[in-house]
Write a structure and sequence with these properties.
Blueprint: H1 5-21, H2 26-40, H3 46-51, H4 63-75, H5 79-87, H6 90-95, H7 103-113, H8 118-126, H9 138-149, H10 151-155, E1 158-159, H11 160-177, E2 182-185, H12 187-190, E3 195-196, E4 198-204, H13 208-216, E5 221-227, E6 231-236, E7 241-247, H14 252-260, H15 263-275, E8 279-281, E9 284-286, E10 292-293, H16 298-304, H17 320-325, E11 340-344, H18 355-364, E12 369-375, H19 387-406, E13 412-420, H20 431-435, E14 439-443, H21 452-464, E15 470-471, H22 489-499, E16 502-506, H23 516-524, E17 529-532, H24 544-553, H25 567-576
Helix pairs in contact: 1-2, 1-5, 1-7, 14-16, 21-22, 23-24
The chain binds one DNA strand through α2, α4, α7, α9 and α15.
Length: 579
DNA sequence: GCCGTTTTCGGCCCGACTGTTTTCAGTCG
C-alpha cells in the first residue's frame, strides 16, 4: 500500500515538530513545514510528480526533500523520520496539541517527568507533579489542566455559516457599547474557509483598551483566556474560541491584512517587504530609519509592494503572489454573476416546498432560471420520481412556465432530475425517461466506500452517458463527518472536460463539494463548473453564497461557471454534449 | 532546507501577552 499525499505531509509535519522539540535550526524546520503544506495542497498524487521527475518543480520542495519523498514512496519509510521517532516518541508530539504547550515545554515535560503521551500528562497533572519542573507555577498547571479538558472541543471546527452568524452576533453586541464601531470578521472566516477553528475579529478605535474590555465583558463570553491593551482571546459559551484585535484607525489596512492571514500568505508578504528594505507588521511598514508608514486600507499594503490587491479567498500562498506580480490574478466570480440555479428539490421528492414556491423565491432572488431536479425513485429515497411521475411533473412545470410567460416575466423553470448512479454504474432511470428532460444531474449517494477503481469507473460511466449534463457533489464528502469517496479525480476531470460534463460545486454548507482545491484543478483541466444550491426549502436557495465563496477560493471566473450564462446557452451546452 | 528582478551564499515575518526564572523565553496567531 503506497503512501498518500496526506501520509507524506503528516510525516514531514511530524519531522518538523520533532526537530522543533529537539531545538534544531528553525529555518530547516520551516522548510519541512512548508514542504508539508505544499504537499497538502497538491492536486495530484506525489507518485505522479515522481514519475515525471517533477518533484523539485513544486514550490517549497528542493533537492533534499524531493529525494526524501522518493525514498518514502519507494520504501514506505525514511531514515530521518525513524531516527527522530527514536529520540522523540510519537506521544510527545501529541502534547503540542494542548494549548500553552509548545516545543520547549513538551521537551521539558518529557525530559524531566518522562511524560510521553497525553495520558501521562493527565496522570501527572492529577498527581500535582507538574510543579516539580522548575519554572512551572500554579497558573501554568491550571492552564494545562484546562487545556487538556478542552482538547477535543478546541480541535473541533465549526461550519462557516455558524461561525458567520456567531461573528455577526458579537459584532452587534460590541456596537451596542460602541455605536458605529468599525469592526469586522477576519481570519479564516474572511478567507471563506469551509470550516473555522476559531473566530477572529478586528476593530479600530483610538482607545483600544476600552474595546478589549467591552469585548471580554460580553454576555456571550464564558472564559477569558488572555487579554491586554490591544487584543484578547475568549471562549464563548458555545465552546468556540474568539480572538479580538483592536488597532488605532490609521492602522486599519495593515491590521486587516495581518489578521486575515493566512499565516503562510503573511510570511510571503513580509519577505517581499524585506526585499524592499521594509519590515511589515499589523502596525504598518517600518522603514530602515525606524519611521512607521501606516496603511488606512489594504490596497495600500499591497500597492506598497508593487502589487494589486489580492482577494482574501486567494491568500493561502498557493501562487497568488506570482499571479499578482504578473498581472494574472483571476477576475473572481461573484454572487451577482449567477443567473440560474440548476439543482434543487421540491415535494415531488424530499424537498419541503412546492415547485411553485421554490420558483417564486428563486425569481424574487433575481434568478433568471432554475432547474427542478427531484430524486429518482431509488433505494431509501422516499417519494422520488419515476418515468411516469416525471411526465406528470413536466405538465406542472409547463403550466407554471406558462403563467410566468403570461405575466410577461422572463423567468424559466427547467425540468430535470437528480438521478442516482447505482452501485454497478448504471443510472436509476432509463435513458428514454432522461431524454425528455431539459437537464440531467447525476450523483453518487450509495456505496460511497467502493474501492478506488470501482467507484471511479462508476462515475466515468455516468459522465459517458450522453444524457448526463451535471455531476452533483462529485466526492460525496460531508464536512467534519464523512470523507469523500476514494476517486481518481484527475481521470474524472479529464473525462468531464472531454465530454463537456459540468461538475458541481454544491453550496450546501455541509458539502461544499467539489472543494476549492479540486475545483481549481478541474478548471485547470478545462472543466466547466456549476454552482448550485441543492435547496430542499426556499430558505436554502441563499446557500449559493457559500458555493460562490468556494468557487472564488478555486480561482474561478464567471465565464467558467455555466449558470452565469444565459439560459439559452446552458440549454445549448447541455444539448450539444449529447453525442 | 529552500531560494534568487541586487544574491548559487547568506539570508529566512512580526509583535502581543503571559508567567515567573524579575529580565525574557515561550507560546500564539
Amino acid at each position: 500500500m503506497s503512501l498518500s499525499n496526506r501520509d507524506v505531509a503528516h510525516i514531514f509535519q511530524a519531522i518538523a515538530d520533532s526537530m522543533e522539540i529537539l531545538g534544531e535550526d528553525r529555518f530547516r524546520i520551516l522548510a519541512y513545514r512548508r514542504a508539508s503544506d505544499a504537499i497538502g495542497d497538491l492536486p495530484l498524487p506525489l507518485a505522479d510528480y515522481q514519475a515525471r521527475h517533477a518533484l523539485e518543480d513544486i514550490p517549497g520542495i528542493g533537492k533534499t526533500i524531493a529525494e526524501k519523498i522518493g525514498v518514502l514512496l519507494d520504501t514506505g519509510t525514511l531514515p530521518l523520520y525513524e531516527r527522530l521517532k527514536s529520540q522523540i516518541p510519537a506521544g510527545v508530539l501529541d502534547l503540542l496539541r494542548v494549548p500553552e504547550i509548545g516545543p520547549r515545554t513538551a521537551k521539558r515535560l518529557y525530559d524531566e517527568l518522562g511524560i510521553a503521551s497525553l495520558d501521562d500528562l493527565r496522570a501527572m497533572v492529577d498527581a500535582g507533579r507538574l510543579r516539580e519542573v522548575k519554572g512551572f507555577g500554579a497558573k501554568t498547571e491550571q492552564r494545562i489542566r484546562q487545556g487538556l479538558e478542552m482538547l477535543s472541543q478546541r480541535e473541533q471546527r465549526v461550519l462557516m455559516p455558524h461561525a458567520m452568524s456567531t461573528a455577526e452576533t458579537l459584532i452587534a453586541a460590541l456596537r451596542e457599547v460602541f455605536v458605529d464601531l468599525r469592526v469586522t470578521a477576519v481570519g479564516s472566516l474572511r478567507r471563506a474557509c469551509p470550516t473555522v477553528g476559531d473566530l477572529d475579529l478586528l476593530a479600530a478605535q483610538d482607545d483600544t483598551a476600552a474595546v478589549v474590555q467591552a469585548f471580554i465583558a460580553l454576555p456571550q463570553v464564558a472564559e477569558v483566556l488572555m487579554s491586554g491593551v490591544m487584543k484578547a482571546s475568549v471562549v464563548l459559551h458555545s465552546g468556540l474560541q474568539a480572538d479580538l484585535l483592536v488597532v488605532p484607525p490609521p492602522q486599519w489596512g495593515s491590521a486587516l491584512q495581518h489578521f486575515t492571514g493566512s499565516q503562510a500568505h503573511n510570511i510571503r508578504l513580509r519577505e517581499l517587504a524585506l526585499e524592499r528594505g521594509l519590515s511589515f507588521s499589523e502596525h504598518g511598514f517600518r522603514q530602515a530609519d525606524g519611521t512607521l508608514m501606516t496603511c488606512a486600507d489594504e490596497t495600500q499594503v499591497y500597492a506598497t509592494l508593487g502589487l494589486p490587491w489580492i482577494p482574501p479567498e486567494l491568500r493561502e500562498d498557493r501562487g497568488e503572489f506570482a499571479a499578482a506580480r504578473s498581472g494574472t490574478l483571476p477576475n473572481l466570480i461573484t454572487l451577482a454573476d449567477l443567473r440560474g440555479d440548476l439543482h434543487m428539490h421540491s415535494t415531488w421528492s424530499d424537498g419541503r416546498a412546492s415547485i411553485a414556491q421554490m420558483a417564486a423565491t428563486a425569481h424574487a432572488l433575481g434568478r433568471e432560471y432554475i432547474t427542478i431536479t427531484d430524486h429518482s425513485a431509488y433505494l431509501g429515497v422516499t417519494g422520488g420520481v419515476d418515468a411516469a411521475r416525471l411526465r406528470d411533473q413536466a405538465a406542472e412545470i409547463a403550466a407554471l412556465n406558462a403563467e410566468y410567460a403570461a405575466r410577461g416575466e422572463a423567468f424559466r423553470i427547467l425540468h430535470g432530475v437528480e438521478v442516482d448512479i447505482t452501485p454497478d454504474g448504471s443510472l436509476a432511470l432509463p435513458d428514454a425517461a432522461l431524454a425528455d428532460l431539459d437537464l440531467v444531474v447525476a450523483s453518487l449517494h450509495v456505496s460511497l466506500r467502493q474501492p478506488r477503481d470501482q467507484i471511479t469507473a462508476r462515475l466515468l460511466q455516468a459522465i459517458a452517458n450522453p444524457h448526463v449534463d451535471i455531476i452533483a457533489h462529485p466526492t460525496g464528502r460531508i464536512l467534519e463527518r464523512r470523507e469523500g469517496a476514494d476517486l481518481d479525480l484527475e481521470v474524472v476531470f479529464q473525462a468531464a472536460a472531454a465530454n463537456g460534463t459540468l461538475l458541481e460545486i454544491n453550496s450546501n454548507p455541509e458539502r461544499l463539494d467539489l472543494d476549492a482545491l479540486h475545483a481549481r484543478r478541474a478548471l485547470e483541466l478545462g472543466v466547466t463548473l456549476v454552482v448550485n444550491s441543492d435547496a430542499h426549502h426556499p430558505d436554502e436557495l441563499n446557500q449559493l453564497r457559500y458555493g460562490i465563496l468556494t468557487a472564488r477560493r478555486a480561482w474561478a471566473s464567471a465565464a467558467q461557471v455555466a449558470n452565469t450564462w444565459p439560459v439559452e446557452q446552458v440549454l445549448k451546452h447541455c444539448a450539444s454534449s449529447v453525442i
